[in-house]
Write a structure and sequence with these properties.
Oligomer: single chain
Shape: flat
Number of domains: 1
Radius of gyration: 18 Å
Low-confidence stretches: none
Number of strands: 11
Amino acid sequence: MLVSEGKNVFLNSKKRYSLCFLGAGFVSDKGKIIVELKSTEGKLIPLHKTLPNYRFRRNGTIGLEYWYFNIEKDGIYNLNFVNINDLIIKDSMLISKRIFQKNRRAEDLKILLKESISIRSRLLAIICLVIGINALLWGILIN
């Protein structure tokens, strides 16, 4: 559940992670929400917005990757949210549907920290998939 009190999380490897919202198809903060991720030594970890915001499903619930960050040292980190009630939360990412939907409460969202990959790697995987399917179809047509 998304709450304003800080939560301690253990990140066990030096990797790229994503901070995701579970339970929403569209989230916007209009620059008002502040998210801080600090190490036990007090070092602030910079969070970067994911563009585009990738959608996924986890146990039938829609999720949205919103921020990403890189960890250089494993350990316990404190995750803190400020102004969480200023989030604009909708069920659909389509503008034509969003205009008619009410804002959902921030308390209905869940936060998920997961390992992530870079935009370059994601695009390369999509391109390789398209080329592979294309080669397969041409192979079937030629035979």
